[in-house]
Design a protein that fits this description.
The complex is a heterodimer. In chain A, 69% of the residues lie in helices and 4% in strands. A three-stranded mixed sheet of chain A has the order 2-1-3. In chain A, strands 4-5 form a two-stranded antiparallel sheet. In chain A, helix 15 packs parallel to helix 17. The longest helix of chain A has 27 residues. Chain A is globular. The two termini of chain A are 16 Å apart. In chain B, helix 1 crosses helix 3, helix 8 crosses helix 9 and helix 8 packs antiparallel against helix 14. The longest helix of chain B is centred in the N-terminal third of the chain and has 34 residues. Classes of the chains: A mainly alpha, B alpha/beta. Chains A and B meet through helix 6, helix 9, helix 14, helix 16 and helix 17 of A and helix 10 and helix 11 of B.
């Protein structure tokens, strides 16, 4: 097989092009100037919200508990003023002359400051566990990471994957049933196989019969939801012996888990968290540093060129979808390992959040990890807020993680280029 | 002229009522397909209650349309025959209220020397059919289980005034003469559970959460938190109750997803809670899973004795707040078949043992004798009215 030299020149994937464009800040395009100004306006809105809401809070010291009975307190009102002034100044600078190469770093600092102000406002005069929140955030993001990695592999290969939800649900169901009859580990493998087969079904219908990939994806979602719900109601409810697996306990990594703060957050988790993080690194390396990755991205960007240079486009797509299905299916078994059984629609739309995570993460594994963590953090924080006596209604807290996702998709998703051949059928000569 | 316009108005109201019933049936069918499977009974039960008031209003309309049929009711008459149960879509072996109700029916049948029969409903469409097929048989009392059967029961009852019915978890705005409604007062046993939890906590923090923020759920949470407060006033302690502040609190947002229950329990434990009372049906099983993995967390079950229905994690349960549907069915059978009094309203309370607390089972040894006595005294005081939930 000939390794096309032309292909190598494409270098980084579609997702990284956007980042590279921003490096050169001397000659800014009108689009960049506009985006820079929008960011400044966002800072100013943040400053207004801070003054209107957080400064008006009940006040008092907000106590954040860490592990080992350690804790630190912050005065809610002073922090709110600091945040408001910082955001106002930052917004002014951003609008007037831009923040050049520091733009991303400053955005990160501002976001952290704003979140701390929000937390201090909610916990004024009260306390909650910060390490616990971070631990739960990482945990909640884990199934999203697996779902998003599966989604990235599909879409990088040029196949739209709306069916992440279906793959996750199939994985959860299969691991629960097979795990009950055998054990959880075999259940995990079975989940990978079943979701892999579903992914191949998606590939087959999309590639062989050129069916609209979005429609196939939706069909798979509904098929899996209907089938698993039916079997759950008709078989599992009356035969609980097929729906009960011992849960997977957290595995404290020796030494590492003794590190203050980081230990209990990062290293007292189940193997799903460790494997998820490892897989993010592995997929990143494979996509951007191996021959397979280069071919995969070529197949998603310009299948005709890849085909001309000797890449078997269709086989590459079939194989990648099978792998993506296996990864997503493994992610589905997270639910079984977590609670030890299946119930109707246990994934509860997390597959669709994973789809958003793929977009927010710009089809890059590391970006997806960050987006998944953002969702997990909103989820964990909303739960903590419901314990505290805040004026936020519980119904709003329940939808807060989804709202955050929506806002981020709307703001980050713009300007992101998806793989060029995404969703387009390819006919091999 | 005036009279005729009145008649017209009544006619239109009746037509609207019928139309409402018709469209409601359609709506029901749709719910059925989306919900088709889980059918974890506690969950449907709670959600059923949510829409109770609106449904009851529709029933009113229906009644207006069929008053004439109802007039032929000969209430004093006692039927002789069997106790017949129509389940909702959960089926009779659901480990939930369909099953408990049937156990009650079997017990009552044995006591009265009759037979207990059951028909399972596979879908909403089966309710009316199943009820009708029991009407054609020799049934002294037809027990319909749960809110989903509210409309079908009302319709069958108005069309068959001689047939006696009992329905669980449903209240009609205008009571039907031949339908006995079976409901439960859950604030008091939850209050006792709160007192017990406050007495058992070692960290000084206990917690509760619900499935969805609706009154049939929050009545448990409210009772629980008030029980903790009562303990604090009695003992001069400062036990904190997380998850409900009297008007809002922590909710899973559903009655199905166990992972939500596990996350909530884990998050509560971070804040130091060591006794957790989930009022969220199967979601609570997720909290039990958390407690099974982590030492020192106790769970209080809800509706049925979870030590029996979730025996694989029986060690985590301190007790359960019981809604004794079987007792209610027995009481209904005794009233309708034994005494020959049709209709009315049964309310399960601590006093008639329609509600209560389950035994401590495996945690029997953990609960101090003194606290056990106090709990018993508190139940007695609640029954006597010396102590009330609202202080």
């Amino acid at each position: 097989m000939s390794e096309g030299i032309g292909l190598k020149n494409t270098g980084h994937g579609p997702g990284t092009d956007a980042y590279l464009g921003m490096v050169d800040s001397v000659t800014r395009t009108p689009d960049e100037i506009k985006r820079s100004r929008n960011l400044g306006i966002a800072y100013l809105i943040g400053a207004v919200i801070t003054v209107a809401v957080f400064v008006q809070g009940t006040g008092g010291t907000a106590t954040f508990n860490l592990d080992n009975d350690a804790s630190f307190g912050i005065g809610a009102i002073p922090l709110a003023w600091i945040c408001a002034v910082s955001l106002a100044v930052l917004g002014g600078v951003q609008i007037s002359r831009g923040t050049a190469n520091f733009q991303s770093a400053l955005l990160g600092v501002a976001a952290v400051l704003f979140i701390f102000t929000l937390m201090a406002w909610a916990a004024a005069g009260q306390s909650f566990s910060l390490t616990g929140t971070l631990h739960d955030a990482l945990k909640a993001s884990t199934p999203l990471v697996f779902g998003a990695l599966g989604g990235i592999l599909c879409e990088r290969s040029g196949i739209i994957n709306i069916a992440i939800e279906g793959f996750l649900l199939a994985g959860a169901f299969t691991s629960a049933v097979v795990g009950s009859v055998t054990n959880l580990w075999i259940g995990m493998i079975a989940a990978m196989i079943v979701s892999s087969l579903l992914a191949l079904l998606l590939a087959w219908l999309a590639i062989r019969f050129l069916v609209d990939q979005v429609i196939v994806g939706f069909a798979i979602n509904f098929f899996v939801l209907g089938l698993t719900s039916f079997v759950d109601a008709r078989v599992l409810t009356s035969n609980p012996e097929y729906n009960g697996v011992p849960t997977l306990a957290e595995w404290k990594i020796p030494l590492l888990s003794d590190i203050p703060i980081i230990g209990p957050v990062l290293f007292e988790q189940t193997i799903y968290v460790y494997l998820g993080l490892a897989l993010v690194a592995l997929v990143t390396w494979a996509l951007f540093s191996t021959k397979w990755g280069l071919q995969t991205r070529a197949v998603g960007e310009h299948p005709k060129a890849a085909g001309t240079l000797g890449v078997n486009v269709l086989r590459r797509r079939y194989v990648n979808l099978a792998v993506a299905g296996a990864i997503t299916g493994f992610g589905g078994s997270w639910w079984t390992a977590d609670v030890g059984r299946f119930n109707e629609n246990i994934t509860n739309g997390r597959g669709f959040i994973a789809l958003a995570v793929v977009l927010v993460g710009r089809h890059h594994p590391v970006g997806a990890l960050c987006a998944a963590l953002l969702f997990g953090f909103s989820d964990a924080l909303a739960l903590k807020f419901s314990f505290l006596s805040t004026s936020i209604p519980s119904e709003f807290l329940e939808l807060a993680p989804f709202l955050v996702t929506l806002i981020v998709v709307a703001s980050v998703g713009r300007g992101h280029r998806v793989p060029a051949a995404l969703g387009q059928p390819y006919e091999q000569q | 002229m005036k009279k005729s316009s009145k008649v017209l108005a009544v006619g239109m109201v009746a037509a609207l009522g019928l139309a409402a019933c018709g469209s409601d049936d359609d709506g029901g069918d749709e719910t059925e397909t989306t919900e088709a499977a889980g059918e974890e009974t506690e969950s449907t039960e709670a959600m059923e209650e949510e829409t109770e008031s609106t449904e009851a209003m529709e029933d009113e309309g229906e009644e207006a349309a069929t008053t004439e049929a109802a007039e032929g009711d000969e209430s004093g008459e006692t039927a002789s025959g069997d106790i017949c149960e129509v389940t909702d879509v959960g089926g009779v072996d659901d480990k939930g209220f369909n099953q408990i109700a049937f156990e009650g029916a079997q017990q009552a049948a044995a006591d009265l020397g009759v037979e207990a029969k059951v028909l399972e409903s596979a879908s909403d469409a089966d309710y009316a059919t199943n009820i009708q097929s029991f009407i054609e048989q020799d049934c002294a009392l037809i027990v319909t289980v749960g809110f989903l059967l509210g409309d079908a029961t009302a319709e069958a009852a108005t069309n068959n005034p001689d047939q006696q019915f009992a329905i669980i978890d449903f209240g009609y705005e205008e009571p039907l003469d031949n339908v006995l409604t079976l409901n439960f007062s859950m604030a008091e046993p939850s209050f006792v559970a709160g007192y017990l939890a406050a007495g058992m906590t070692e960290t000084g923090t206990v917690a509760t959460y619900g499935g969805i923020n609706i009154p049939p759920v929050t009545v448990f949470m409210d009772g629980f938190v008030k029980g903790v407060e009562y303990y604090n006033t009695e003992k001069g302690t400062d036990v904190t109750a997380l998850g409900w502040d009297g008007s809002d609190g922590t909710f899973a947002g559903n009655f199905e997803n166990l992972d939500d229950g596990k996350n909530i329990a884990s998050s509560f434990a971070d804040e130091g809670a060591d006794v957790i009372f989930p009022v969220a049906g199967p979601v609570g099983l997720g909290s039990s899973a958390y407690a099974a993995e982590n030492e020192g967390i106790r769970i209080i079950g809800v509706d049925s004795d979870l030590v029996e229905s979730n025996s694989s994690e029986s060690q985590v349960y301190l007790t359960s707040v019981l809604k004794k549907i079987d007792e209610a069915v027995i009481a209904a059978a005794n009233q309708v078949i034994g005494e020959g009094t049709p209709g009315g309203e049964y309310l399960g309370t601590l006093e008639n043992e329609g509600t209560g607390l389950a035994p401590y089972h495996e945690q029997e040894g953990d609960v101090p004798d003194e606290l056990k006595t106090e709990v018993e005294d508190l139940i007695a005081a609640l029954i006597a009215g010396d102590v009330t939930v609202d202080g």
